[in-house]
Amino acid sequence: MRLSQSFLPVLKESPAGAEVASHKLMLQAGLIRQTSSGIYAWLPLGNRVLRKIEQIVREEQDRVGQEILMPTIQPADLWKESGRYDAYGPEMLRINDRHGREMLYGPTNEDMVTALFRDDVKSYRELPRMLYHIQWKFRDEVRPRFGVMRGREFLMKDAYSFDLDEAGAKISYYRQLLAYLRTFRRMGIRAVPMQADSGPIGGKLSHEFVVLAPSGESEVFYDGKIEEVDLEREGLSYDDAEALEALFREATGVYARTDETHEERYWDAVPAERQRTGRGIEVGHIFYFGIRYSEAMGLKVSGPDGTMLVPHMGSYGIGVSRLVGAIIEASHDDNGIVWPEAVAPYKVGIVTMRADDADTVAAAERIYAALGEAGVEALYDDRDERGGVKLGGMDLMGLPWQVVIGPRGLKDGVVEVKNRKSGEREQLTIEDAIAKLSA
Ligand code: P5A
């Protein structure tokens, strides 16, 4: 993409009113704009990151479940059936349609998915199942803040599992645990599973996935031993129930809690030299709540001997839009964002130091075309701007690689390739630069 043809409104000054680095950087680098309190429009750069995160989530969820798409608007009746319409409170955006029917903008989908499943599934042979979707949610948060990290409208991946009994439901829970650990690792971050409260979703087994960052909303307490646990278990099959349970025990057996569940008596048992405290951002949350919704909504299937069974369920959320902010919190420096390559909006930024020098422009065009042919996503700053301004913009946007082209280097037949994260610079011939960045 050529910057001269992009909608990429970069702010010169750090925006006022943003409290945390990610919110500031997302506004300054032109990823988002607020349209009302807690509601944001995603501009091209932000949208590309959001879609990359979404795609990683999708690929990992496809290994354990099937994708569906439920609507954002739901009938209130479903929530009355499950018995939580009144209990949910003012966080729910309630709407009346033109016929006066009560509707709502979904804050989550347990009720709807239970009804969908109930209407079509009749036999134990059709279980277990795992369904997920990636859809916008609305929660009228009392204090929307930190940009997309606590928004009112936000993109969530929510999965729902249906099993014949508690033992089966636990395996579904362990599968999602592993899928989550792999998902976050692919995005270049490490999220620690922490024991959680289940809140308005309900149930007795629940874990949050927390990315450590000083600006996080929750205080966290954990045993440093978790850093040594191999959480992603390469090669572990989702069909190996025993190994999944072993992973669950190891990953959740180490003390790791937020301020909501922290208990001094267990904390005191962690050796002092291993006690770690800090702050964290919740990027995912998983729940096992048994027959809470299936029983209330009349979901049952016939068992092998003809008796009726009430399926055990769980739900599993990932804050897709929150992750954009969380990744920035975990990966930025004084000059701007430092995107992990897997979620970067473009892999390479191309900068001409002198847009009025024909050789510089020719070299840049050649690199841009070659990268395009190799399928490498590049953002080419072809504007007639001062070189320094362009370099500052590139650092701010945080693309993993920069190719800087100017008359001085070209005289010696080289361009500069810079790694945004390490700051390392290499002088390479045009061909070598193309080869390196296409690898
Ligand atoms: C699990 C899936 C649920 O809603 N029902 C379906 C369960 N869980 S949750 O913890 O309430 O939300 C799941 C994840 O969504 C993100 N999230 C938010 N992101 C941005 N702004 C918000 N206001 C917001 N609220 C929740 C979090 O990442 C959370 O873990």
Molecular structure report:
With 439 residues, the protein is of the alpha+beta class. It has 2 domains: 3-337, BirA Bifunctional Protein, domain 2, CATH 3.30.930.10; 346-438, Rossmann fold. The protein has 13 helices and 23 strands. Strands 3, 7, 8, 9, 10, 11, 12, 13 and 16 form a 9-stranded mixed beta sheet that branches. A 5-stranded mixed beta sheet has the order 20-19-21-22-23, with helices on both faces. β5 (93-96) and β6 form a beta hairpin. α2 packs across α9 (320-330) and α10 runs parallel beside α13 (430-438). The two termini are 20 Å apart. It binds '5'-O-(N-(L-prolyl)-sulfamoyl)adenosine. '5'-O-(N-(L-prolyl)-sulfamoyl)adenosine is lined by residues 108, 110, 139, 141, 150-151, 154, 156, 158, 201, 282-285, 287, 315-317, 319, 321-322.
